[in-house]
Amino acid sequence: MIVDFNINTLVRANIKELQPYSSARDEYTDATSKEMIFLDANENPFENGVNRYPDPQQHAVKSLLSEMKNIDPKNILLGNGSDEVLDLIFRAFCEPNFDNVITLSPTYGMYGVLANINAIENRCILLSDNFQPRVDPILKAADAQSKILFLCSPNNPSGNSFSTETVEKLLLNFKGLVVIDEAYIDFSDKKSWLEKLRLFPNLVITQTLSKAYGLAGIRLGVCYASQEIIAILNSIKPPYNVNELSQQKAVERLLKVDEVAQEIVKIKEERALLILNLKAISYIQEIYPSECNFVLVKVDNATKRYDELIVKGIVIRNRTTQPLCDNCLRLTIGTRLENNRLIQVLKEI
Ligand SMILES: *Cc1c(COP(=O)(O)O)cnc(C)c1O
Asked: Are residues 187 and 216 in the same domain?
């Protein structure tokens, strides 16, 4: 347990003193609001389903997530995709041209891009050969200005999750925030870190409806953290950052618990089948274990194989320029039909 953690020492000074934008609607979203006349926000009064501004606190979506994940809505922040959530975290805690963050490559490209956009130094530490974080080099790279450590677990593009003991060591010893990006957690048999949120005041967990929940098009990212951290992020988020249609779609989908669960089961079955079939391709030299809805493979010549697949109408992701990913391709799990076609084409080329 971290005893001396104080979130106020990590927040940027201007954010601490910020007077957040407040909309009148923030205060009138309870049941009685139906009988009220809203003449506060210059909306068009004629009903068409979306003529009103959306709920800035997304109560309906949060209350479903709160029930599903057994967590208080005050520990939840929603964003326009995880990408917005991650950007808010940068802007709340990292002083441009002064602070730094630590990322572990190869990993999700957005951490580095967001660091660049926000003028924050990105201290990139290599994962080990089996794609696990190396605790000592990470802690050695950190200084007083290291505000965030990004752990993507399960990791994109390697597909594995990080060992519990390693993550725990980092949570206990890294002095800034530890963001665990769990975009792929629903495809893994490992438990989410959500259960341990109360044990680590510096832990921030991000999830998304873009992958397992099949809603990449609505852009809905989720952040779980202490109420103090969520309050800070809330104070800087654009007031209406999740639009009405996205909120409606999210609620609809979150209620279809069985349908989502069945799709996840199917994707995991297809993943196992694809891996089996990939073993028969002569030029595939390694198939990395996957806890995600994609598989990373090492081939003889990634760029050549990538181009050959494009000609045959199949788009995959060439990861060969990433550290530790020499000649690696990332294959998303598709439908049975799509995966069979992929295998057929891989055999032909
Ligand atoms: C796909 C992905 C996301 C999802 O981002 P959204 O903005 O929510 O669509 C987040 N993190 C990682 C590592 C991903 O691969």
From this structure: yes
pTM over 0.70: yes
- Is residue 275, in this structure, part of any structural domain at all? yes
Please tell me the distance from the alpha carbon of residue 317 to that of residue 304, in angstroms, as a whole number: 13
Q: What total number of domains does the chain contain?
A: 2
Q: What is the length of the chain?
A: 349
Same domain, 264 and 209: no
Mutation to probe ligand 1, out of 87, 111, 211 (largest number of atoms < 8 A from CB): 211
Residue 62 domain boundaries: 7-101+111-122+181-255
Q: Give the Å distance between the CA of 4 and the centre of ligand 1.
A: 32
List pLDDT tens digits, range 271-324.
999 999 999 999 999 999 999 999 999 999 999 999 999 999 999 999 999 999
The strands making up 328-332's β-sheet, listed across from edge to edge, are 284-287, 294-299, 328-332, 317-318
Say how many Å lie between the first and final Cα of the chain, rounded: 54
For residue 283, the 8-state DSSP code is T
Q: Is residue 270 within 6 Å of ligand 1 at its C-beta?
A: no
Cβ atoms 292, 184 nearer than 8 A: yes
Final residue of a domain: which of 211, 226, 255?
255
pLDDT, tens digit, for every residue of 178-191?
Answer: 999 999 999 999 99
| Cβ–ligand 1 contact at 183 (below 6 Å) | yes
| Cα-to-centroid distance, 212 and ligand 1 (Å) | 11
Q: Which of 205, 237, 255 is the last residue of a domain?
A: 255
